[in-house]
Amino acid sequence: xxxxxxxxxxxxxxxxxxxxxxxxxxxxxxxxxxxxxxxxxxxxxxxxxxxxxxxxxxxxxxxxxxxxxxxxx
Length: 73
What we know:
Distance between the termini: 32 Å
Oligomer: single chain
Radius of gyration: 12 Å
Shape: globular
Strand content: 35-45%
Helix content: 25-40%
Largest sheet: 4 strands, antiparallel
Order of helices and strands: HEEEEHH
């Protein structure tokens, strides 16, 4: 559980905001433990994390304009 908290806090405080999923969920690009990760996080008006989920690949590709599968090869 501690890794999840660390990951979310790093994304929120140090990640690069690349877009929005839906109406309010911010999408962050973050280097976590040597790997680039993408996470969608919804933060309430009180500052609490309301929800968080891995960002769908199609959405990442739309915002970054690059094919993530090609980068692996």
